[in-house]
UniProtKB/TrEMBL annotation:
Its EC number is 2.7.7.7. This is DNA polymerase eta. GO terms for cellular component: nucleus; replication fork; site of double-strand break. GO terms for biological process: DNA repair; error-prone translesion synthesis; response to UV. Its cofactor is Mn(2+); Mg(2+). Belongs to the DNA polymerase type-Y family. GO terms for molecular function: damaged DNA binding; DNA-directed DNA polymerase activity; metal ion binding.
Length: 596
């Protein structure tokens, strides 16, 4: 359940930056012939043209949607170019997109505290940078305001013909209070950052700029692609008054449904009718206070200083005839997955000096003559040992333990329709452990051999743990940030930038009215809801939307924006809770035998 974090008294400037049709942009950069052409990226499974996972804005004009399969999309847009997601070891390989996301993060993180929230979205705390700008180069003193900043959508400002002039006045208001002046600086900083991202990576992005993470995240998709939306404090009541509760982060699930069903709350603004005490009576002290605060746009969540993922995961689905029915076929695929996982944690160790501590196995399964079809294959975890063959061995043991629990030790036929392995509880290696690192680097990493680790590591007890609670621990990895940001320098660098980022979408309707963009978002949200309810009501969902849950590739899900992950996981494991087991956070703990 959500908990209210204490909010800082000082005003903050937070941005949420979200890449536009990200995988499509990455593919268009790789193959410039695709630029300006309706394009979509499809899953590697080519059934009915493959499931669309990213749709370019040119294709969206024709009505192409992410819920379609390639064949259907081609029907609505015959010129559509379909690009298949790269494949390695028989499954989707997201490395291309991951490193493209890292290029963007590297640029954004130079200007403020930066939290990589998913493969294509980032939070920035620009408070210090905005303060410096206000002291050294306030908007009203600038010779010119960047055109991209003038194109901002400032909520509450209206959308008159004279919009740019109105935005200029808003950015330069001498009578604005300190909080709103900082926000104006934030808008200019973000506009310049977005131009810099475009120049250095060729990618466009959209952004929300507000006084907290929650509001920034709400604002970033309001005007897409390649635009930014600013949320002055005075616009918050109106924004929340009409915002459906289900669209608010953390209210998409049961809590949101309970608000609707039990309290008749349909929009976030409706919550204003309830006192804090009343909300606490219904939902407990913490959640009650959190609800009371979000109704007022108050959120104390901090931007975490984290540029690297919290965990690594890879998985594969085995729909229909591909279902795995023998231990040897499971072993074969687990070996593939574990090899990839091993490669990724090794390069994390190499590049970032981070160690993953927990190995987890998830599966979806069914059994013959099932009398308890609601019973899920239990997720299992144990201490993670480095080296591909050790991971393979442990994953296989986790699988066997999970299978025996799933089958209740009965000797019946079974099938596996999805397998995934994950490495989590990632910690930074403390200083002074160079010799250990050297050992990992020189022996284990190159050979991928399991034997080398035995020489150094005491074998941990491999307690197999059933997973019961979501891992919310957040290992942080810091990167240098600049405390001051010289707007002028950035402006100079981009002085030759003609026009705005929107021109990269010339000919697209994307720059059109706010209304159409809002409708688009509503429609997509509606469709997802319908799909989710179809899936929930249908144990073997092949629904009218042509969308089959069996085909969701867990490896594709892992790095998606959090709300999409939650949504998809909600379909797959409606009542799943992950591991509670708290481990020590030092390397010493890792090398000592695990306690049973
Ligand atoms: N993705 C995926 N499967 C999904 C949803 C998304 O593989 N069901 C991938 C492809 C997307 C990327 O994640 O390009 C980012 O997802 P977003 O939801 O941010 O959507 P896009 O960036 O594609 O488009 P938008 O411009 O609407 O944000």
């Amino acid at each position: 359940m959500p908990v209210a974090r204490p909010e800082r008294q000082e005003p903050r400037v937070i941005a949420h930056v979200d890449m536009d049709c990200f995988y499509v942009q990455v593919e268009q950069r790789k193959n410039p012939d695709l630029r300006g052409v309706p394009t979509a990226v499809v899953q590697y499974n080519s059934w009915k043209g493959g499931g669309l996972i990213a749709v370019g804005y040119e294709a969206r004009k024709f009505g192409v949607k992410r819920s379609m399969r390639g064949d259907e999309a081609k029907r609505v847009c015959p010129d559509l170019q379909l690009v298949q997601v790269p494949v390695a070891r028989g499954k989707a390989d997201l490395n291309l997109y991951r490193s493209a996301g890292s290029e963007v993060v590297a640029i954004l993180s130079k200007k403020g505290k930066c939290e990589r929230a998913s493969i294509d979205e980032v939070y920035l705390d620009l408070t210090d940078t905005a303060k410096s700008m206000l002291l050294e180069a306030p908007p009203e003193g600038l010779d010119s305001i960047p055109e991209e900043a003038l194109k901002s959508h400032v909520l509450g400002l209206g959308s008159d013909a004279n919009k740019e002039e109105d935005v200029r006045k808003w950015l330069c208001r001498p009578d604005a209070d300190y909080e709103e002046k900082l926000l104006a600086c934030g808008a200019i900083i973000v506009a310049e950052l977005r131009i810099r991202v475009l120049h250095e990576t060729q990618f466009t992005c959209s952004a929300g700029i507000a006084h907290n993470k929650m509001l920034a995240k709400l604002a970033s998709p309001m005007h897409k692609p390649a635009q930014q939306t600013v949320v002055p404090a005075s616009s918050v009541p109106d924004l929340l008054a009409s915002l459906p509760v289900k669209k608010m982060k953390q209210l998409g699930g049961k809590l949101g449904s309970s608000l609707q069903d039990d309290l008749g709350v349909n929009t976030v603004g409706d919550l204003l009718k309830f006192s804090e005490q009343k909300l606490q009576d219904y939902y407990g002290i913490n959640t009650g206070t959190w609800l009371w605060k979000i109704a007022r746009g108050i959120s104390g969540d901090e931007v975490e200083d984290r540029l690297l993922p919290k965990s690594h995961g890879c998985g594969k689905t085995f729909p229909g005839p591909m279902t795995l029915k023998t231990t040897s076929s499971v072993k074969h695929w687990l070996n593939q997955l574990c090899e990839e996982l091993s490669d990724r944690i090794q390069s994390d160790l190499d590049q970032n000096k981070r160690i993953a501590q927990t190995l987890t196995l998830h599966a979806r399964a069914f059994k013959e003559n099932d009398l308890e079809p609601q019973k899920k294959f239990p997720s299992k975890s144990c201490a993670l040992r480095y080296g591909a063959s050790k991971i393979q061995e442990d994953a296989m043991r986790l699988f066997e333990s999970g299978l025996s629990e799933f089958l209740n030790s009965k000797n019946v036929g079974w099938g596996i329709t999805s397998l995934a392995v994950g490495a989590s509880k990632i910690i930074d290696i403390p200083n002074g452990t160079t010799s250990i690192l050297k050992y990992f680097n020189e022996k284990c990493i190159s050979s991928n051999s399991s034997d080398c680790s035995d020489a150094l590591l005491e074998e941990p007890n491999h307690t197999v743990t059933s997973i019961s609670k979501r891992d919310d621990e957040n290992p942080k990895s810091r990167a240098p940030t600049e405390s001051a940001f010289h707007t002028k320098g950035l402006s100079d660098k981009n002085a030759n930038v003609k026009g705005t980022i929107l021109r990269y979408f010339s000919g697209s309707s994307c720059s059109s009215s706010n209304q159409s963009s809002a409708n688009k978002i509503d429609l997509e949200e509606h469709e997802r809801t319908v799909i989710a309810s179809e899936l929930n009501s249908n144990p073997n969902p092949n629904n009218n939307w042509g969308f089959n849950i069996e085909e969701i590739d867990p490896s594709v899900v892992d790095e998606l924006p959090l709300e999409i992950q939650r949504e998809i996981r909600g379909w797959i494991h409606p009542s799943k809770r992950i591991n509670t087991g708290k481990r020590g956070s030092t390397i010493a703990h890792y090398f000592s035998p695990a306690r049973n």
